Amino acid sequence: MTTRDRRAARELRGYLERLYGPQPTLTLTTAEEVSSERVYVYVGGVVPAPPATDDGQTYGATSFDHYAPAFVTVVARLASRLVAIRSARYAPGGGLVPACAQDGAEDLHAVYGKLFPDGAVEVDVPWQELARAVAEELSEAGLLDRLQSGQIKSKFASLRWYFDSIPQSSKSKVNYILRAATDLSTVVCERCGAPGEHRRRAWHVIACDACEEAQRKGRRGGGG
Hints:
The chain has one domain (3-51, 58-198). It has helices at residues 3-20, 69-87, 101-112, 125-140, 171-185, 209-220, and strands spanning 27-30, 41-44, 148-154, 159-165, 197-200, 204-207.
């Protein structure tokens, strides 16, 4: 297993454990095919732990909620796609190759057209990468036809994706994938993309431990 493979597996495990708690049965298998651009990791054995107390949710096998098995499978698949996309920017020293949010938004528009119209993407690079994972998922499922986004933004520390046009025939399937992306966004640092969690500042954000510590030091030092 290469350094890139290990990092991809570590990030993927981090996302899933922050969403669903410790995962003793989780299996992460690096794809055998060699790709110079991406690291692909297959996920198995995700076992979410629903709350011990009754919170009014059903948590049924086919229900549309955070812990439903079918829904968890989609979240895990999106997380795997996100890690693969991020792995293309892993730097040899362990960091990420810098990327520009404007360039990222323009690239999404160039590849997917009306799914990412000019001015619609209002999130930074890490969540742009999550949006690309969603686009790839929609494309593979044959759901891109006649989709046009109106706005993609962060609201109350989660990804919000609004559409100007969505066919009625595919609306439920599209919304299911977007709900999974919203769940996943709650553990993806908005600044660097590492596994993170909800932080309460003057506004709501998702931040990893390192970015949160840098923010605190900046405040103590009078920085931004």
